[in-house]
């Protein structure tokens, strides 16, 4: 399916060129998979689905953990590739890999407990039945991934779909094709005895992803922008293919009057700029209590003035991975200034080619696109509020609802519960993403469904309810034309007893 070449001049126009975002150098080319190639990959995965789905949970666990060990053995090569193709520092690539391994282990080790058949009480009226709830694999899951966390993010669908007994066809982002193929190749290398098709990749741009949506897979698990998520959902409607959508965010942090200000500033500075701010659940907005505002802003500035992007070993974060994102960040910086915001660190001059230095604004109008839309760059808006109620109202006043954070020594949990999001970290940022048992996903424009944890396994399985009649109760044939008047008489006495006694 894939050919890797290092001579860009030899690439036809229809080839996908992987580029080092720091230098613009072409590092590899890949054949773009068209509709036929996508259907062939799905057919291969369909062919392997019966074998993989019929394995025991223990066997699948063994194969998944072997995959992890292969990735650990190849970690140096893999993290260098991630650095080269995505731009992030090698240490950040290693952290990303480590998080992905935690999730593979969790999915592999917990699928049996969560998805094994369960006995269900049949209830008094059906006491002559036993009832079972069994979870079946869906079949073939199509995974479409983004480039910002090109291992961790799609793996949240891939590992869980595989653990639940599905085969997977994965289309990595066109900005992380090599990384996606490395992930799948490691699975094959670790498990040579498995049939072809358990975990396949297809390569290309949006059109290849769209072909996957149309291909008859049993579910599409998408991670990427809200605009693409909406298009995929509309396309999937034609075949009633279910979708899991992990989309964008505009995450807020609330810094309450009783917060540990140094800790909050440290976490916000990192959460807003790490990975060049290209984090779906990264910090984009802060609502800080007036009483601690000056101290907080000063501390954020103190930390971020020494944080520099680059491509060497000393860089805090790398270049913007996708060239078109640079224009969006520049536009949001201009919009923040136009709507009355003050840049307390950096400004338009911070955009230096693919490298963007941290930019911190205060008091940008809430209607500005710098506050309302996902920026996906190393920028931050800080707004002063008069207490927690105002902070919660403004944090919730967003079409997105992915995740959030709260800094408060005494009321963190209370404030967290009031936020309209899928996840919240209290006195930390992004912690939920590293706890494999916690599901991840958003509300509103941030998406539909959950990856990770128990719900993340259930997303990739189909409940199958089975009711088994163990014996018949004489005179109690309810679902039969043999039903008698005396049966109905008995029912008329039982129903008030069972359901009519509550005053
Ligand atoms: P994108 O929407 O541009 O692309 C994502 C994937 O969709 C790519 O593989 C792309 O080729 C494919 N695609 C594009 N058009 C398609 C179509 N019509 N049909 C099928 N597939 C299509 O997003 P991106 O720029 O790669 O990623 C950045 C976005 O991802 C940000 O908005 C970020 O917040 C979001 N994200 C969300 C999460 C999450 O878990 N919620 C995680 C990471 C990134």
Report on this model:
There is one protein chain. The chain has a 7-stranded mixed β-sheet with strand order 12-15-16-11-10-18-19, sandwiched between helices. The chain has a 6-stranded mixed β-sheet with strand order 7-6-5-8-9-21, with helices on both faces. Strands 3-4-22 form a 3-stranded antiparallel β-sheet, with no helix packed on it. It is 40% helix and 19% strand. With 503 residues, the chain is of the alpha/beta class. Helix 14 links the parallel strand 18 and strand 19 (423-426). It starts with 15 loop residues before the first strand and ends with a helix. It is globular, with a radius of gyration of 26 Å. The chain has 16 helices and 22 strands. Nicotinamide-adenine-dinucleotide is lined by residues 144-149, 153, 171, 173-174, 205-206, 209-210, 213, 223-225, 228, 231-232, 246-249, 280, 322, 374, 376, 402, 442, 447.
Topology overview:
Blueprint: E1 16-19, E2 26-30, H1 35-54, H2 57-73, H3 75-86, H4 90-115, E3 118-120, E4 129-137, E5 140-144, H5 152-163, E6 167-171, H6 177-190, E7 199-201, H7 206-214, E8 219-223, H8 226-237, E9 243-246, E10 251-255, H9 261-273, E11 283-289, H10 293-304, H11 323-338, E12 342-345, E13 351-352, E14 355-356, E15 359-362, H12 369-372, E16 379-385, H13 388-396, E17 400-401, E18 403-407, H14 412-416, E19 423-426, E20 443-444, E21 447-448, H15 453-458, E22 461-469, H16 485-499
Parallel strand pairs: 5-6, 5-8, 6-7, 8-9, 10-11, 10-18, 11-16, 15-16, 18-19
Antiparallel strand pairs: 1-2, 3-4, 4-22, 9-21, 12-15, 13-14, 17-20
Bound molecules: nicotinamide-adenine-dinucleotide.
Nicotinamide-adenine-dinucleotide (NAD) binds at residues 144-149, 153, 171, 173-174, 205-206, 209-210, 213, 223-225, 228, 231-232, 246-249, 280, 322, 374, 376, 402, 442, 447.
